[in-house]
Amino acid sequence: xxxxxxxxxxxxxxxxxxxxxxxxxxxxxxxxxxxxxxxxxxxxxxxxxxxxxxxxxxxxxxxxxxxxxxxxxxxxxxxxxxxxxxxxxxxxxxxxxxxxxxxxxxxxxxxxxxxxxxxxxxxxxxxxxxxxxxxxxxxxx
Length: 141
Ligand code: DQA
Prior knowledge:
141 residues, alpha/beta, 5 strands
């Protein structure tokens, strides 16, 4: 079982970026915890601040992964191209947001990608990634 986690713009700064909203843990630290928790799952990780690179990576996942956990960051609210990629790859994708996007600015309340995803998790902090992996793997931890 192979799950790909894909993070979009500014999520490389987790740990120091607006900690009141996103917490003070780096994604590398969280990823280590996640891999220990799901030790029987191959969890790959990709980050890019660049829209086309995120799309290229999703294309590279075809035939290689069983599910994708996607936090597209602000591209969530702007990118029809990423929404099209979600629809195109034929892999179940769970949209994750660390913050509760529906409780924030109005421009964060629209997700172009949500309707193309299997489901969305928002506002549960980094636990959202774990819950998404749990769903995609049928794992009950
Ligand atoms: C985010 C929410 C987005 O609105 C924002 O642009 C991000 C992070 C989240 O994880 O809460 O970069 O996707």
